[in-house]
Amino acid sequence: MGVHFGISILFVVCLLGLSANAKDFTITAPPGSDITSLLLKTFNEACQFPTKSSVLIPKGEYKLRQIEMMGPCKAPIRITLQGTVKADGNVNGNDFWVAFRRINGFKLNGGGVFDGEGNAAWRANNCHKMALTQCKKLPISIRFDFVTDAKIRGITSMDSKNFHINVLGARNMTLEEITIIAPEESPNTDGIHVGRSVGVQIINSNIKTGDDCISIGDGTRDLLVERVTCGPGHGISIGSLGLYVKEEDVTGIRVVNCTLINTDNGVRIKTWPSAACSTTASGIHFENIILKNVTNPILIDQEYCPWNRCNKNKPSTIKLVDISFKHIRGTSGNKDAVKLLCSKGFPCKNVEIGDIDIKYTGADGPATFQCSNVSPMLMGTQVPKACSSPVTKLPGQ
């Protein structure tokens, strides 16, 4: 009995010792002040602390200029944003506003707001007039570059000048209860863009923006998107793929239990014709999707060429393999509710369509199912009825 008591006391003392070694830092500044230098100094101090640390940005509104918080850190670190940080409204040519880089064991939470002050930048956006590589550089609001074992929870990004959130080179990262807000007409304001990352989860989030709610770039593997509400916006998209020379394969993408409301697109895959590379996107599954007045509910577009800046006569060299659309229901604002437009150079393979129930809200007839360069496998019921190109039915139908 005495031995057990002694062990318990030792265990409690050890826990208290570990807790005492954790370090909490607080940004102390008057509301309305510029906290850039103070936040960077505090983050660097916390990052070098030998055990877990946290940095609190309390309630209030603060100015924040461009800032890069760079690891590696000596121990896991958490930033708790309870207030609102506001960018300036200038269009200054930077490619990011807030960046978290090369941090292992990172957390960002607190219910606070990143306000990108994007209105002036949207007016300056000229990407629709020239090649993407030449258009005016606008800052992404929040970058997570090469961050591992991370959890981002309960933050809001509003009115970004460019993408709201960009995830690059992440490993084992969860974004949960994220709120994204920007006007429907704000250009290039993708909600969350993920590229060259493994094991990312985006769950329980609400995205209203002027471009893709979620866009999935090259090199993404093992991504889960679940219980996300999107709209307005351009839907949930794989791609665009094929614009750049050294792109990597995409594989293992699951988009499940999501709702899209008044979006230009629903769930789609988009690749460029005359692509600059030859890669494969495979193992992509969309399931249990609810649509409410979505213009293009289900779309594979291998002739993606915004503003006609490419050669559509040269078919896309991006291979699409093992794709499924299952249990998708709701209403379409476009008669062509399902469009599978695959590459004539590399037709889509192993595309499965199951239990689709999409009704067209217009008066000029029922919804239609259009496809080219693909023979989809069909299971369950299809409304609209499947395209007339050759199809392969699954056993038992």
UniProtKB/TrEMBL annotation:
Compartment annotation: Secreted, Cell wall
Source organism superkingdom: Eukaryota
Signal peptide: 1-22
Pfam families: Glyco_hydro_28
Active site: residue positions: 234
Keywords: Cell wall, Cell wall biogenesis/degradation, Glycosidase, Hydrolase, Secreted, Signal
Homology family: Belongs to the glycosyl hydrolase 28 family.
PANTHER family per UniProt: PTHR31375
Protein name from the UniProt record: Polygalacturonase
Organism: Brassica cretica (Mustard)
